[in-house]
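cron nightly-structures :: item 1 of 1
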Amino acid sequence: MKVIKTTGVVGAGTMGAAIAQKFAQDGFKVILADRSLEFIQKGLAGIRNTLEEGVKRNVFSESQVNEVMSRITGTADLMDLKRCDLVVEAIFEDFCAKEELFNKLSFILSNDCIVATNTSSFSVTELSKSITYKERFVGLHFFYHAAKNRLVEIIPGELTALETLETVSQFVSLVGKDPIICKDVYGFAVNRF
């Protein structure tokens, strides 16, 4: 089973920043990528604000906030993701934009990097058609706020390898989440229910 040390999150908006925060809180290095440094700075500021709120509520100390923030690197260059073991896509819900991103990532990421989509509405199998290594592609649907909400849906596509599924299941548990494995059907489990 693959060991995940460095993670990547593409999309520094509300969901992507929260996912990056959670990974960093649990000791993983995170590369937070977006189209511009402006989006990155906004995402990092959002993470720091959330952590600072935790300091006020005695959830975190100031040194823990600095430690978490030190694990996150922002970038507007997708090439910086090539050293990642896991990359989670968390961009806006537009099928064509996601397809385009996965196509680009196919030429950047190592051939053993796991790629996950945080989609809540598209077929994981359909999205996997835009990436070269379909066996390493999986759905990881986090719920807002991703650093606080414990539930994560894991959605294997038709060609997702068992090893990929086992690796992400173990990783999700390591970051303190309660994973449920769902079929690749519209709405997965929670939204469908």
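cron nightly-structures :: done
The chain is about 35% helix and 20% strand.
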